[in-house]
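Fill in residues.
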């Protein structure tokens, strides 16, 4: 498994809800399409899922200037990949 940057979905959704933005408003603030946001929110197992790219990451940090990279994203590398259950806990929403 190659290194990947993953979205902390629960935190992302929390801050979007706090701002009371629609996906359309969020997309404008981030400079991305609503489809990019939708795909990043899909479960990893969904073939339509996309991990956040540079444009998404830069847009999220611009839209939420009070947050840092580690607040919204985390790195998955080969060493961490062995702890699959731990990784899944980051991307799943709080239940």
């Amino acid at each position: 498994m190659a290194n990947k940057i993953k979205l902390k979905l629960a935190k992302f959704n929390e801050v979007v809800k706090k701002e009371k933005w629609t996906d359309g408003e969020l997309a404008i603030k981030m400079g991305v399409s609503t489809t990019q946001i939708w795909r990043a929110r899909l479960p990893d197992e969904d073939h339509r899922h996309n991990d956040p790219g540079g444009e998404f990451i830069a847009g999220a940090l611009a839209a939420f200037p009070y947050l840092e990279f580690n607040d919204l994203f985390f790195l998955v590398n080969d060493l961490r990949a062995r702890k699959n259950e731990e990784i899944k806990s980051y991307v799943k929403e709080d239940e």
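The chain is about 55% helix and 10% strand.
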